[in-house]
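ARCHIVE CARD
CATEGORY: sequence design from structure
SOURCE FIELD: tokenized fold
FIELD CONTENT:
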């Protein structure tokens, strides 16, 4: 027998992707996160959290907004109220800044049992104004069925007693409910420290360098948890989504998507009026007009040609 001693394999350590990215960002672009948040706050202010709707209504409304305009989702939700009237107290809708619709009128939540057991063709016709009704109607019924089977009723108020990540995990175990939909519900119904990342947030975050050019919206949810403090989640989401809505950022034509890498730049914030200095993202340079009425300087220390691309 040989005298060699077998060694136990080392256990692989799984790092927290959010904290890992936050440390990397602070190393290569120090001060970027507070700089961006302050710049957005100068333009849009600092929003105050208010519960928008009860959590079940928020969930169904968010499903209706998937790949649809918020204003169309409002029409579909109002159609649910009219077709399947519920009982109880009327509740206001407090959409706040960043919501793309006009806001729902005060009203009672739909009868969720009637929605779950409605004939599918009838439900499809009811929510058709919201778009993609053939996909969303069975998804809504399956979601309500899962909640009822798990809890015995349609209330999601129990989520407020769970930790943010546990509540998100419970919701995302439902088919058709992803991190964005779950995070929207938990942030706006309970004020939980989660960061919903939709296409507007994703695009602006790519452009200013908060997330890497190849990071998906799904992965960005966890990166933001490491970048932001719990009390920054609501403000960051609302202001980023506002900026994405009012400042559309079209990609340039293909011949302009590959640009030579610029020389390294350092993050700086001069006193007085802020100025922009060469920020590049997935679709090219930001101009002061794209950023907003108050130009903001956010420069990257080093950018490769691969960073300058359209997803």
């Amino acid at each position: 027998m040989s005298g060699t001693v077998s060694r136990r394999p080392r256990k692989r350590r799984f790092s927290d992707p959010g904290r890992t990215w936050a440390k990397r960002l602070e190393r290569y672009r120090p001060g970027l996160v507070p700089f961006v948040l302050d710049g957005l706050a100068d333009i849009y202010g600092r929003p105050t959290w208010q519960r928008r709707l009860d959590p079940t209504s928020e969930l169904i409304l968010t499903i209706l907004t998937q790949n649809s305009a918020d204003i169309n989702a409002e029409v579909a939700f109002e159609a649910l109220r009219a077709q399947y009237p519920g009982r109880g107290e009327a509740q206001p809708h407090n959409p706040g800044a960043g919501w793309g619709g006009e806001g729902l009128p005060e009203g009672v939540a739909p009868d969720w049992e009637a929605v779950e057991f409605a004939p599918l063709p009838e439900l499809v016709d009811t929510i058709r104004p919201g778009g993609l009704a053939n996909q969303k109607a069975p998804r809504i019924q399956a979601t309500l069925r899962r909640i009822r089977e798990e809890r015995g009723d349609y209330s999601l108020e129990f989520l407020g007693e769970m930790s943010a990540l546990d509540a998100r995990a419970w919701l995302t175990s439902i088919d058709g409910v992803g991190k964005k939909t779950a995070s929207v519900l938990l942030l706006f119904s309970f004020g939980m420290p989660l960061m919903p990342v939709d296409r507007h947030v994703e695009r602006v975050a790519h452009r200013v360098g908060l997330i890497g050019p190849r990071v998906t919206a799904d992965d960005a949810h966890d990166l933001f948890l490491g970048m932001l403090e719990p009390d920054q989640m609501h403000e960051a989401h609302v202001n980023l989504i506002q900026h994405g809505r009012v400042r559309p950022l079209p990609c340039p034509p293909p011949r302009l998507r590959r640009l030579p890498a610029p020389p390294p730049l350092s993050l700086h914030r001069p006193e007085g009026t802020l100025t922009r200095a060469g920020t590049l993202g997935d679709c090219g340079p930001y101009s002061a007009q794209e950023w907003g009425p108050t130009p903001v300087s956010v420069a990257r220390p080093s950018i490769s040609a691969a960073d300058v691309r359209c997803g």
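CARD ANNOTATION: The chain has two domains: 17-48+196-307, 55-190. The first strand starts at residue 280 and ends at 281.
SHELF: design records, drawer C
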